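ugh ok fine here u go
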Amino acid sequence: MQHAHRRPNRPLPKTDGDKPMTEDLLLKISDVSKSFGSVRALRGVNFDLRRGEIHALAGENGAGKSTLMNIIDGILHPDSGEILIDGQAVSIASPTRAQQLGIGFVHQEIALCPDVSVAENIFMAATNVSRALVMDYGDLHAKAATTLGQLCDISPATLVRDLSISNQQLVEIAKALTLECRVLILDEPTAALTEKEAQILFGIMRKLADQGISIIYISHRMVEIFDNCDRVTVFRDGQHITTQEVADIGPDDVVNAMVGRVIDDLYPPKLAAADRSDDMILEVRNLTDGNRFHDISFHLKRGEILGFGGLIGSGRSEIAKGVCRLECKVRGETFLNGAPLTPRDYQDSIQAGVVYLSEDRKGDGIFLDMAISANVSALDLQRVSSPLGVLNSALETQQAADLGRMLNLKCGKLSDPVSSLSGGNQQKVAIAKMLSINPKLIILDEPTRGVDVGAKCEIHRILRALAAQGVGIVVISSELPELIGLCDRVAVVREGRISGEVSGAQMTEENIMQLVSVTDATAA
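structure:
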């Protein structure tokens, strides 16, 4: 859960009217365009970055943010336009050239080598150009420990594959800090971080900015933008919409600029009291794995959405996986629509109509290189196969088309790979895969992580409609506004136990955070 602190006021570079004076600009993008075939990703965009500022870049998925950052980092080349650094036009032909110019890029998708150590990953670029015949591991580990010391307590000798996703993200950030960059690009850096880790990162960002390093900060989380950034630029449909001082604009203004319309229905109406049912879809009694969670009991009634809150690492995901028998052996009782649910593994859960949508969308939720239609049918190929087990491509395509229409999936052809879609539409494919088996219960782990506000609205609407149709919906989220706005009740998990539950008028950020931090789980 993110609760960033307000950035302390500090002198900003002098300006001439609304435009910064030329000498205060480190980076300036002028009239840059980029197309991929018939798709115009950028349409003559402008962007500038002052020395020592944290500049937020906001926009829906597909707005052109990543395309521009990939151009700045030398991964892509513009069709037209100009890039200036220190007032001089530059050609950034490769990421290596970008590093030479002092540009560091921490991508949202982790790109580390899992089978080597943290230290080797952090200094891989330096190692590649080194002429030394023998690696000095002692020196390498000492330097890595110094850099890591700013961020976290991770041993430089640890293999990356043994780290959690959040710690891998911190290693990516540490790697960028070693490049002595003047421009640091951070793309959704807190998506996999705990609150404590995010606060440490925000503190480091402020220190770097005070040292004169300029930061481009990409995030869909308004609280992070308004608590940590100096200016915000909004892109929409490949075009620059506005650049404003954060002090002169509000979160609603940014959201409306992103989507091109007023968003006043981010969360659909909740279940009215008169429509509430006493029918139980799911009952869990005293579920435990003896290690990561203990004595978990909760229920889900027909028509409602149940939320699970708590810090990353509190045991929320492990409980969900325990219900589905994804990772561990558990003890306790589970009932689905009044009947005992005793799956031996996840395949049994699927057959019973219980599915889990992972928080790691690209690692566990979808197959990026496979067709959209193949992704949708992946959970149960029998539904789109002949009695002899031969896949019926026409039936598979029709299933994907029907579910895609229901979810308002925006794509080219259903035979296109999922990697061709925006983040929000990739998430819709993951949801379509769940719906392909006509589930009785869906547990969604961080269903809108890394998804822009427009797609969030659609996903919230979809989940509420499914609940109204009688599908059980459980949502795990680190975003308090999402839990409060979407769910009918919220159970809070702390250190592997449910510390309490809130609903109705009691469902406030203060009450949830109190349950998150309570020292005695039985006190609530």
